[in-house]
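USER:
Make up one protein:

ASSISTANT:
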Amino acid sequence: MFVRGVRWGFAMIGAVAAVQAAASPHPAGGTMAVASFVEVPKNGSAPKILYYKNADVVKTTTTSTKVQTGVDGSGKPVFKTVSTKSTAITPKAELLTTNGSSTAPAAATVKFLLSAPDSPYASILANPQDALFSLSAVSTSAPELAGGVFAQLFSGTLSFTRTVPLYKLDSLGNATGGPLTNLLSITFTNAVLTGLANGSTIGFAASTPYSTIEFTSDFRTFTHDDWLSNFDFAIAGNAASVPLKQALVDPSLANVTGARSLNSFRVSTTGTFGASAVPEPANWAIMLMGFAAIGVARRADIRKLARITA
């Protein structure tokens, strides 16, 4: 239990640092943003492409017992059968991208900006790219509630794929090799989703070394030396389709045990991704910021990211 608590605490500190870093200027030695994205509006409104799905496993069992209710005329005991229901809940939540109002996993259209100054495609990548965003993450731990803020750990993958592939060219200008479409792909563990209880915004963030994060791209090389490279991402969600609340259980059920995830909801989303050398020692102070910093960071993040479509 102690080890789990320490691991959780480090993951939370790292996530707060990632959100803070995404919303403020990066100090020398700190993580620099290498990519960002925004949703593509549909019919003048945000499509809410990020979906939190309550996938709790609920198992209800019925136990029948005989209870004596009296005796009959001959003095024999009279029994009746009494049934008792008990419900055990195993928490599970999924965080995924969807298309439209569907609840099925699907890639969503976004505008994606990748910083790749050393790439032969730098001039093309200098402009926001039409891309498909896919995110699939799972949590099997219940959300913790502290100070009116929910927090839940997720692990999974996300990717941004260019809708029109690029190709390497030979000396004659002819395409060689396979299509290049992977703008950025990430595998991660221990990313933290946070949000105010009854609120309508979330933060989803991770930062090494508290989380494990692997970046790959067809257009940029990333070094993943332990303790020599720092990776993070911060995704902000707003305008939740329903307030953030722990899922309810049918009050008619007795003896309910186990933890519960949040009610399912959708949010509009933006995000940034960073990679560089490990921050200088003085900059570790950023990681001591509390949950209160998350809301402020998220609003600043959204304002900054909106500029890439201007």
Notes: Residues 2-56+91-309 form one domain. Residues 1-8, 13-31, 279-310 have pLDDT under 50 and may be disordered. Residues 32 and 288 are 19 Å apart (CA to CA). The first strand starts at residue 33 and ends at 39.
